[in-house]
Amino acid sequence: MTDTVLIVGAGPTGLALAIHLALHDVPVRVIDAAPAPATTSRALGLQPRGVEVLERIGALGDLPQRSQSSLNMSYNEGSRTVLRLTVGQAVADQPKQALLISQAEVEGALRQRLAELGGSVEWGTRLVAAEQDTTSVTAIVQTADRTEQRIKPQWLVGCDGAHSTVRKLAGIGFPGRKLLERLLMVDVRAPWPFDKNGSTTWMEAGHMLSVTALPNDTWRVFTEPPPDLPDQLSESEITDRVLGEFSARSGVGLDTVTEIRWASEFRIHRRLADAYRRGRILLAGDAAHIQSPTGGQGQNTGLGDAENLAWKLVLVALGRADQRLLDTYEGERRPLARNVLRATSAAVDIMLPHTPWKRLLRDKLVLPVVRLPAVQRRLWLAASQLGISYRGRPLAATSHRWMPGLRPGDRMPDLACRRLNGDRTTLHAAIRGRWVVLADKPDIAARHAQAAAAQLGAELVVALTPAKPYTHDVVLIRPDGHIGWRGRPAPDKLTAWLNQVLWNA
User: Fold this and answer.
1) Three-class SS of residue 125?
2) 28-32 and 5-8 as β-strands: parallel, antiparallel, unpaired?
3) Is 228 exposed, middle or buried, given 0-12, 13-18 or 19+ CB atoms closer than 10 A?
4) pLDDT of 399-425, one tens digit each?
5) For a Cys staple, 164 with which of 16, 251, 287, 462, CB 3.0–4.6 Å?
6) What's the rounded Cα separation, in Å, for the pair 251 and 248?
């Protein structure tokens, strides 16, 4: 059977996309050039938005039980704490909290869910060539034994990271700039006397060293080395450098370290792809955008890419939408990525200034403002990505200026709901890659769900009523949790909106 979609890259973005497609029996093949799954990772956590994405595809599993909450962030200059952010208090009213857990663990949960749906990853398999025409992509992949295979998927999606082969083969530019020249990083096990629900960062003369708690008495230490430090350091050289500086800054002796788990170096860039789609080739995750790890946005933005692209690709692959719908993926996600890049770059520039006047500005102006609870709340709601809206974007171009409450394009909060048979559920748990029709009366929900199913397919639509009164309007929620259409009961208007989106986007 010909695979409809070839996904290159088995990180969180590629795996989440594959799960979405597998949920609807869209044939998908996932390859990765690595010989085996990663056991170490740079990403340390899931923001609430990422948690929602995993829940909606049934991949969250026991990750909350195996995670810890990254609640407290302290910034020091010498022995003096100049800023403390208490994340748990800032977003205490949000139903989903950030999870501090290794990306490797997240990928493991995603692979398990993909396996439950009959999918798998082909490790040691790399893409070496790709050409497209109006109906398919001709791709050549090389397996672990160096055998080359010629395959013809209808769609090729690059989820293969910052050095994406897919992006290069598609001829899509990836402009940007460096944020930090280098970072050195070490993971160790040690009984250190720091807050196990957060991180501690030392900032001196624009030079940063940070230690973050991980599960099982494990800590991640990373620092920006001096510019004259030689390249191509060995793992032992990186370890000695990082831990030596850590001990000098913190006063904690290195005899407390019981295990060195990983040492690495990397560079931080800010880059954004010129396009997310070139014909039948698409990009997602780090292949489309990379940014500073500040705020933990990279992995979560990639998961959002996967969910947004997936529901559109499903409809196109099933013949229920014109392929022009895929252009709205870039129209919705690229502006968001641009804003994330700007915000994380600004955070680096503000918190790690390299000139005396910028440090003075930070200490006298920025830090006092950031200490305000209302400001902290705004910062962490932004980092959570729960405030993402697609208002004014291709699928919600009408502003609905006079409509009270949430509007088309806005994220729909999770609600306690009932199915038409009376069973209890929650809105996000019921989505599972489907569209939800929400109305306060079962008969109204059923009539509008029937209208939606005529366009989308009965298996892609579920009807719910809110457990508590929510709105007199009927709300159509997209598979990514955003409002597609909202209005007074009128199945014909819902049908007209769907027809416009699916065939004239």
Assistant:
1) coil
2) parallel
3) exposed
4) 666 778 899 999 999 999 999 999 999
5) 287
6) 6
Tell me, rounded to whole angstroms, the distance of Cα 189 from its chain centroid: 28
Read off the tokens for 109.
């949960």
For CA atoms 188, 194, 198, 203, give the dihedral sign. Answer: negative
Q: What is the pTM of this model?
A: 0.90
Query: What DSSP element (H or E) covers 87?
Result: helix 87-90
Burial class of residue 134 (count of CB atoms within 10 Å of its CB; 0-12, 13-18, 19+): exposed
Reported as a single tens digit per residue, the pLDDT across 1-49 is 467 999 999 999 999 999 999 999 999 999 999 999 988 766 777 888 8
Q: What is the H or E stretch that residue 29 is in?
A: strand 28-32
Fold of 416-504: Glutaredoxin (3.40.30)
Cα gap 239→392, rounded to integer Å: 49
Neighbours of 125 (CB within 10 A): 21
Beta strand 121-123 pairing with 28-32: parallel
Domain ranges of the chain: 5-69+99-176+271-352, 416-504
Distance set, CA 183 to CA 173, 221, 229, 345 (Å): 25, 10, 11, 15
3-state secondary structure of 470: coil
Helix H or strand E encompassing 307? helix 298-317
Count other C-beta atoms under 10 Å from residue 118's C-beta: 8
Q: Are 426 and 465 in contact (CB under 8 A)?
A: no
Identify whether the C-beta of residue 11 lies closer than 8 Å to the C-beta of residue 302: yes
Tell me the residue type at 344. Answer: T
Strands (E), 88-175: 99-100, 121-123, 126-132, 137-142, 148-151, 155-158
- The residues, ordered by sequence, that sit 6+ positions from 236 with a Cβ below 8 Å of its Cβ are 263
Structure tokens at 95: 């139903």
- Buried b / exposed e along 388-401 (16+ C-beta atoms within 10 A): bbbbebbbbeeebe
Among 4-18, 56-70, 259-273, name the most confident range: 4-18
Expressed in percent and rounded to 5, the helix, strand and coil fractions of the chain are: 35, 25, 35
The CATH architecture annotation of domain 5-69+99-176+271-352 reads: 3-Layer(bba) Sandwich (3.50)
Provide the token pair at 129. 């060539």
Phi, psi of 450 (to 5 degrees): -65, -40
Using alpha carbons, select from 66, 15, 100 the residue that is nearest to residue 303: 15
Terminal alpha carbon distance of the chain: 30
Q: Which residue do the tokens 């019981």 mark?
A: 258
Record the tokens describing residue 306, joined without a space. 């996967």
Burial 323-340 (b: 16+ CB within 10 A, else e): bebbebbbbbbbebbeeb
Q: How many helices (H) and strands (E) does the chain have?
A: 15, 25
Phi and psi angles of residue 209, each rounded to the nearest 5 degrees, phi first: -140, 135
